[in-house]
Amino acid sequence: MYFENEKLDSLNPVAEAYITLSGAVAQEESRNISENMQWAVTRRFEQGTFTNYKAFMGYQCIEGELVIVPEQAEVVKMIFDFYLTGYTFAQIKAELEKRNIKTATGKSQWDTTTIQKMLKNEKYKGDSLFQKTFTEDYLNGIRKKNEGQRPKYYVKDSHPAIISPEIFDRVQEEMFLRVRLVLDEKGEKSNIGNRYSSKYLFSNLLVCGNCGQVSDVERKEGRLYGDAVQEWRRGRWYVGVLRPCKMRR
């Protein structure tokens, strides 16, 4: 390969050294640019002036600022109300689809993960948490979830709120109450996630004295069964469907 500007042939040993040196210089320039940009963004985080928002359900981004979309804001309020009424993520999804309510991207089908993230999104109460993710290596540009590797910056009243702080905090408390820790097969604590149901009187209240699992009630052939009531399945005694239980009826 012949480089016209430098008048060098790639077969020439001098050219090889030149290419290596040029690559190193370019990489160093790229690193400096990345560090300078990161420094500028961090200063804006600290000053609470970072406004590089993206549009999401309930808001559109106009000149870097979040502006409420009234029709979508009503959907957001509905989702928060459903959850406080006792709906699960799956039940909220079903209700939204039943009412033919579209997602922010215009899709007819909702995702329970999206609903869960919406209920956790502090932006709905008018606040912003910055640097939830970060780029660890400027060369590949891959973003990673910030789990304490970098500082996070919380800015209150950064934009108009759709949900009141009181309702938002109640939803976070409700989420915490619905998450349960049980013992897995190895006897270690394991998070079983959102298996909550408010349909029956004793949902989430009855606990098995043997395995410590919370009762989830389901209907079978006109009768009620729960995790605290054992049943024989595939040659083993089970408490509901979570893990084997040695206690028999």
From TrEMBL:
Molecular function, one GO term: DNA strand exchange activity
Describe the location of the Recombinase domain by residue ranges.
Answer: 56-181
Q: Which InterPro entries match?
A: DNA_bind_recomb_sf, DNA_bind_recombinase_dom, Resolvase-like_N_sf, SSR_resolvase
**One Pfam family for this entry, by name?**
Recombinase
Report the domain of life of the source organism: Bacteria
Entry's PROSITE patterns?
RECOMBINASE_DNA_BIND (PS51737)
PANTHER family on file = DNA RECOMBINASE-RELATED, DNA-INVERTASE FROM LAMBDOID PROPHAGE
**Name by which UniProt lists this protein:** Recombinase domain-containing protein
Record the organism.
Enterocloster clostridioformis
